[in-house]
Input
Amino acid sequence: MPKKYHIDVQPIANRFPVIGRSGIVDWGEGCLKCAKCVKTECVYGVYKNRSFSTSIMGDTIDEFCKSCFRCVQGCPKRLIHKTINPEWESLGDELYGPEIISITWEQAATGKIPVSGAGYGGKFSGDGFDSMWTDMSEIVRPTRDGIHGREYISTVVDLGRRLDKLEFDNEGKLLSQAPLSIRLPLPIVFDVFPFGDLSPRVLSAVVSAAARLETIVFMPYAEVGRYSDLATHIVPLVAADMLNEADLASFRMVEIPDGRETAEALIFLKKQLPNLLVSVRMQALSSPDTIRRMLEYNRLQADVIHYVADEKGHEPGVNEGLHIKDVIKEINSGLLREGLRDQVTFIASGGIAMAEHVVKSILCGANLVGVDIPLLIALECRVCRNCRDGLSCPVSISQINPNWGTQRIVNLIGAWHNQLLEMMGAMGIREARRLRGERGRVMFREDLENDTFAQLFSERNS
Output
């Protein structure tokens, strides 16, 4: 049994005051000047530690407040109130909303799983990944020592092709040659950022974090040169018509885009660099055409298929396109029908915003996932997309200290890794490779609605 995978998380401070969910409104008029003010009794020292921040041009009290409401209830004149912070409400978009951004900031700062003492107060169901419920029946008998106790749970995955059978000669000697593979200790890779106030400092932090986590980062080939000392953790994205075997020899894997010249590029790379894994990056879904192209790439010995949704997790460039969970299900089912699922490593990227999305993507049929925007949020990004419009970043991400950025990303993935262990343990699954396509451990809202109401409404319509 391999050694347990451990991520060394360390608390690290934010550069800017955190935008809190609720704000304190403190009315000074009418104060009775009590001998023992409720502010001095704050167990978190909020009123003692508050200050004026020039970076946000405001009070930092909301960052320290834990919303225990002790001061609100204890003030005899009811001069202290709590209210929802409008700046917090305006964070992000419909996927990366203020709740996800706040939780990601906390995980990046502490490396801990976010816990709400008040429980979950959100919707029971929603769209995308929120329409999935995982089977947590095994949580009734948790291990005595928790997720890091005696029970071994592996999150190891492999990149590369797999043999569908082994061949032996008449004397029992193995004839089949094991294909190339890359073993990663967790089912998460870092994908290309769709936007961001990027700089060599930011990219250095991302590559260094990938190295510490023993995973890989996909990166445009033009940016790779600065980080050649960490080439084993980088997968360059190279145009199919600009391949040079001499430039790619130091890498373990390369990715080329899906297109007219992809087949020719695959043949070239497999002939010239037989020790290099080749991934094909696909961004358009047109079933069954996508499955047909995947089968063709599999025939040409492609090692990895990488499907990339848009930044909100839907088919890129398609009105009301499928959510990535449905894309994964279709691709997984298509490969199963052809009897080729075990021969193809399938990465899904786009719209992976939380740790639970990693597990749900794999349950739908992916081998592992690519993460992008959450890494920026770990660096205090507010998902305002000012950078895309040529405006200045409100938190100057491009100016970060690379070491600070590396630890923030490591902390985030460390918290996510613990959540993977929690979910896998609760489902009774001890091996991430067994999690793939395990549809018996998940319920989909659309399936439940169809099973419950379809017959009822069809009888009414008839």
Observations:
- The first strand starts at residue 22 and ends at 26.
- The chain has a mean pLDDT of 86.
